[in-house]
Each structure stands twice: as structure tokens, then as C-alpha cells.
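Hi W.,

Here's what went into the run:
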Amino acid sequence: MGEKKEDRRVGRTRRLMQEALMALVEEKGYERITVQDILDWADVGRSTFYAHFRDKDELLLSWFEHLRTLFEQQQQALLTARRTGNAPEVNIVLDLFRYTGKHHKLYKAISGRESGEMIRKYLHRYLSGLLQPVLEGLRVSRRTLPVPVEVTTHQLVSSLLSLMTWWLDHNMPYPPEKMEEMFRILTRPSIEAALGKGAARPKEEAAVNPKGNDDSATSFYNLFIDPFCCPGR
Amino acid sequence: MGEKKEDRRVGRTRRLMQEALMALVEEKGYERITVQDILDWADVGRSTFYAHFRDKDELLLSWFEHLRTLFEQQQQALLTARRTGNAPEVNIVLDLFRYTGKHHKLYKAISGRESGEMIRKYLHRYLSGLLQPVLEGLRVSRRTLPVPVEVTTHQLVSSLLSLMTWWLDHNMPYPPEKMEEMFRILTRPSIEAALGKGAARPKEEAAVNPKGNDDSATSFYNLFIDPFCCPGR
DNA sequence: TAAGAAAAAGTACATAGTGTTTGAAAATAA
DNA sequence: TTATTTTCAAACACTATGTACTTTTTCTTA
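Here's what came out:
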């Protein structure tokens, strides 16, 4: 926070180049963009570009970091709103579907390419960092689990990302709410199986109520989908 | 099968180039290989290369198709052995872990790159093609499912691939058997949840035996892991 | 084993893009 | 205003791709 205060030009040109990238990405897809294209669109010099980014990928990444920041701010706002007033429940999975849905053009333009893989990794790392501590906290006993928490985390994040991928690849045939529901159906039983039976349930009822409609499971789920209670970064 | 019989040179040079690719891939990783490298290693002319493959990617893909063929032949052999004599059960997931484990160097060399994404897609398509008809056959009723079979398929295949990815990325810290077990733990309950309660269980026992050790679930699982009973391609 | 077909080699080249290097000009912060 | 930082323009070295064309070699088959 105590940074030196950056030159106005720096922010401006960085923004210009990011805007150029986005415009071009929607126009012709990421991989087919050349540095020259960006230069022309943003109307900046070649050397200027390389003064800011090592290559095209770094520019793309900077844009995703920007998006991530916006998303985090939005989530934080929701959380504080929920704590103070009577705001709706926070559901990060649902919000993720909504958020990515809004940016589907960007996704389309990079999916299936090297850039797509890059972003997938980026998101995977990010989400795993959020989720893993939560799952660690949820494990019922300290005994060895049938599946290591690290693997469960990986699995869960992969599931989410793959669902999103499917959704976007198929032009979002269902609303985000439906997708969130599917995700819940598909993953909740797995989590319980992996973390040990009755994981994350209040101590009272442990093995009763085999139907999945109990509130305890739901509340567990809210824990899972509310990672900001355990700041992961 | 009634092909014209190919010129001996064709097979030889194709094989030479594939071998070159593999040798180089282990040496410096896929993306850093140039066509020239391949030419030098295989000792073939430039124009020859382009007479066979449009580009580097096509060469890589041809290699994976080769590997897939080998794998399928192995599976077929196991299946017929099982039908005739008293061979062990066929478990395609386990075999997949074993098979990819044997080729982990290749995986390492392409993971995380554009090529990795390409291969991931290739495998995804291939496995989905095998699995989807099986799942279609398993659905209990014709009513609308909470999760479309297509999504469940996608989800399941993604899970498998992501587990494999994790396993290879971490230098195979567990034996294939353990991985197959984890995969079963993580996905079996999801499948049942997605296909409807009691899916793929013999009609008799439907909702009893909440512990997961029943043979019916296992047999169901064998169905899932034995896609060759419903030829998908 | 000879003729004809097919494949591979050799060579050169057109094309395209990347990332670096200069020194001068412009914008900014102080 | 002045010193500093950033930007710009232009040229350039480099790497790699994919194509075109001719000559040579190898294979098939009759």
C-alpha cells in the first residue's frame, strides 16, 4: 500500500493494452492476435509493450488478475452486507457461474488453446488455495482419510472448472442456478465420502437421516461455498 | 482392411519421425522442439515431413492414436481372456492408470502446454464416447434426471483425467491401485446421485445397506469400468 | 530384372512473427 | 523550471514455418 505512486502514463498504457487485447480477443481469438495487432489497436510503440510485459501471455494474465480482484471485491462486499444487514446468502459457486457467464466471450476466445490451459491452471491454483484450508477444517477425525485432502481439493476444483467449461462450451444452456445445483448434486456425496462419513455435520446427528435433504449437509455446503471465512490468501 | 498395401517407405519414415519426436520430447519437452530438430534426428528431408504431417501437432496426435490402438488391443485381449478362461476382472480405470504411468515421461513433456490441452481434449472425447452410452443404459427411469447424462459423463471423465493429471504432476506418489480406489470413492456416490437413487442396482435390494460395501454397487462399478460391452466406436 | 510409379532428398525462398537495441522526443513529478 | 521517467520510431537480428520445384533414390509389380 505504501507504494511510490506510479507515473500516470504507466497505468494508462497498461490499460490501453489490456483494452486492446480484449477487443481483439473477441474479434479474432487470442492465439491469432500478434503483438503488432495490439500495438496498432492501442496505438503504442513496440518497445513500450515490451517495457511492460514480457510477452502476450503476461498481458493476458494481468487481465485475469484484474478480473480476479474485481470478483474478490464483489465477494467481500456481499459478505459484509450479509453480516450487517439482511442480505441474501453468499454462494461463491453460484457467483462464479454468474461471473464467468458474463465473461463468456473472453472464455470462448481462449478455450482449448495454450492460453486456455494457462488460465485453467491459474484458476485451479487460486481456487485450490481457497478451498483446501476449508476442507482441512472440515475433516472429522485426525485419522488417515481414505482420500488425502489434497486430492479431494484437486478433485473438487477440477469438477467445478470442468462443469464451467462444459457450460460455456455449450453456450450456457442452463441458468447459473441450475448449474450450481448440478454441481452440488454431483460433488456433495463425494465430499462426504472422501472426508469420512458425517464430515462437517454438527456433532449431534451423525449417522441418521440417509436422505440428503437435512439442513446440516446444507450448512456444511455453505461452509464449503463460503471460503472467505477462512482467508486463504 | 482392404487397403492397397502401403509402400514400405511410408511406414518407415512415419515411424522414424515418431521415434524422433518421442526421443526429443523426453530430452527437451514438446514445445521447444522445432521441425528442424525432428528432421535432424530422424534424418529425413524437410519436404518429406510435410508430405506426411501438416505440422508438429499432427505428428504428436498420430503418436497418441498409436498408443490408443495399443491400449485398445490390450483391453480386447484381456476381455476375451476373461470370457474364455479364468482371467482376473477387467478394470479399465486401473489399467488406464497403469498405462499412463508407464508413459509418464511423455505426459510430463507436454503437460500444461498447448499440446497438453490438445491431448486432454482428445482423451476426453475418446473416453466420453465410451462412457456415455454406458451411463445412458444405467439410468433407472426414463424420467428427467436431476443432472443430464451428458453432464454426468463430462463430469466423470473430467474427474478421471484430473486425478490422472494430479497423479502424474506429483510424480505418482501412490500406486495405480490406490488411485483407482480413490477415484471410486470420489465418484461412485456422485454417479448414483446423478442417475437417480439406486441406479444400476439389481432390482431386489434398493435402499438398504447404507454402507458402501455391497456387491451391487461394485458390480455396477464394473459395468462402468467395462465399456467394451457397449462398443462406443 | 526392368519399367514405371511413388517417395524422399536437396535447395532455395517467401513469409511472418518475435524480442532487442538505439537515440531522440514527450510527458510527468517535484 | 528541471530532472526523471516513459514513450516512440526505426531498424535489425533471429528463429521458425511452410511451400515450390527439381533431382535422386527406392519400391512395386509385371
